[in-house]
């Protein structure tokens, strides 16, 4: 039985989540011929304050810019 775990930022509405779960089940069934009742999908919403990339927190207004740094500048 496959277990599909999705970690995502909070903000998807109920209808989007239902559709996402349905489509993941459909594609998994189609690709691997696994009965739908054997496919488990788990969506985990995480608040933006709990996400980070390149040292930047996703809740910060400048996250997109600050999360794309490729080199850390160390402070003395």
UniProtKB/TrEMBL annotation:
Keyword tags: Isomerase
Keyword NADP: no
Family under the similarity heading: Belongs to the 4-oxalocrotonate tautomerase family.
Claim: Isomerase is one of the keywords in the record: yes
SUPFAM superfamilies found in the cross-reference section: Tautomerase/MIF
Membrane-traversing stretches: none
Domain annotation 4-oxalocrotonate tautomerase-like: ranges: 2-58
Residues forming coiled coils: none
InterPro entries xref list: 4-OT-like_dom, Tautomerase/MIF_sf
Protein name per UniProt: 4-oxalocrotonate tautomerase family protein
Pfam families: Tautomerase
């Amino acid at each position: 039985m496959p277990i599909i775990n999705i970690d995502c930022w909070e903000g998807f509405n109920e209808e989007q989540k239902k559709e996402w779960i349905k489509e993941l089940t459909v594609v998994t069934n189609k690709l691997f011929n696994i009965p739908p009742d054997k496919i488990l999908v788990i969506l985990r919403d995480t608040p933006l304050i709990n996400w980070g990339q390149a040292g930047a927190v996703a809740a910060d207004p400048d996250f997109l810019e600050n999360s794309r740094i490729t080199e850390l500048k160390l402070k003395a």
